Structure formats: C-alpha cells, structure tokens
Amino acid sequence: MKLRLALGVMLACAGAPVAAAQCLLCGQGKDGAVAARRAEVPLRVDVETQLDMGRVAVGAMGGEVEIDPMSGARRVRGDVVDLGGFALAGVVTVRGEPGADVRVILPATVDLEGGYGRTARVTGLATDLSAAPRLGPDGRLVFRFGGRLQIDGASDGDYRGRIPVTVEYQ
Predict the structure, then answer these.
(1) Which pLDDT does position 52 carry in this prediction?
(2) Is 0.70 surpassed by the pTM of this model?
(3) Which of 16, 102, 106, 109 has minimal CB crowding within 10 Å?
(4) Each residue of 120-159: pLDDT tens digit?
(5) For a pLDDT cut of 70, what percent of the chain falls above it?
(6) Is the predicted pLDDT of residue 25 greater than 70, yes or no?
(7) What is the DSSP track for the chain?
(8) How much is the average pLDDT of 45-68?
(9) Residues 151 and 5 sit within 8 Å (Cβ to Cβ)
C-alpha cells in the first residue's frame, strides 16, 4: 500500500555576527581595523527559498528523498514514488562586510514533526558553497542547500521543521 507523504522544511536562520573582537589599542595592524569594520557591519541572513522535498508516496519498506543543492533535482530511493509537485533546494542570502570570509554551519541532522507524534529525519545537509566562502564585492553571498529525508513505511503526513543555519565571520 502506498501512502502519501507531503513534506515541507522551513529554514530558520541564525545570523551570528561573530567578528574577532580584538583590542583596538593593541591591534596596530590591518587585522584590528578589519575586525572593527566587521563589528560595524553585522551579518544578515535571509531565506529566499525554503527547502521543500515535495510530495511522495512511500511503501512498507520506506526509503529516502534527496534534494541536490547544485542542481535542485529530487531523487527518490527505496520504496518511494515521486508524486510530483515542486521540490526545491533552499536558497539563502548572506549580507555583510564586502570581501569578508565567512563560515556557514548546518546541523548534521534535523528532525521533522508530523501529525500524531510522528517524526522524520533530514540528514546529509549540504551546500553548493566552495571550501572557503567569501562575501562578494557587494557584501552578498547567495548559496543553495539540500539534504536527504529518511522515510519509514508508516510515516504518512505533512512534516515540518526548522533547519538552523549559522553564519560567522572568519
């Protein structure tokens, strides 16, 4: 028996304006001036598009749905059938000090809640960022993210959750 599973993942962003706080009297060099400027320009994190796994039917054996952050493509594995609808990679815009190096932190797993106390788990959260992300000359950085939703056979319903995204100055 196939069960309908509609999934929507909302993104909660925590912009962490963590610049290296250094003593301005002690910092005679460029690093002290950069830290002072960054403290004046806090990071701002905006969700442009929420991660959405779309609609699938899942059989007794369960499976997973994956959203690729590079292409936005949805892949299903196991006893899962794609029922269509929009599947979307999440899109986040970060604003701050132009040219600044930043670190983006996503959790290893996120539990989603459905009706009747049911849960589903998103794992493998990944972005399309390079190994050393940097804000552009306009002070902006846009990135996409995706992940894998693990589904068991008894998990019909509409699942929602929050994915905390932390962004810090390097």
Answers:
(1) 92
(2) yes
(3) 109
(4) 899 999 999 999 999 999 999 999 999 999 988 776 788 8
(5) 76
(6) no
(7) --EEEEE--EEEEEE--------TTT--SHHHHHHHHHHHS--EEEEEE--B-EEEEEEEEEEEEEE-TTT--EEEEEEEEE--S--B-EEEEEE-STT-BEEEE--SEEEEE-GGG-EEEEEEEEES--SS-B--TTSEEEEEEEEEEEE-TT--EEEB-EEEEEEEE-
(8) 92
(9) yes
Q: What is the pLDDT of residue 128?
A: 97
Burial class (CB in 10 A: 0-12, 13-18, 19+), 105: exposed
- Residue 83 one-letter amino acid: L
**Which residue carries 């992940």 as its tokens?**
147
Residue 107, CA atoms < 13 Å, CB-side half-sphere: 15
Distance CA 66, CA 16 (A): 28
Q: Degrees (nearest 5) of the Cα angle 145, 159, 81?
A: 80
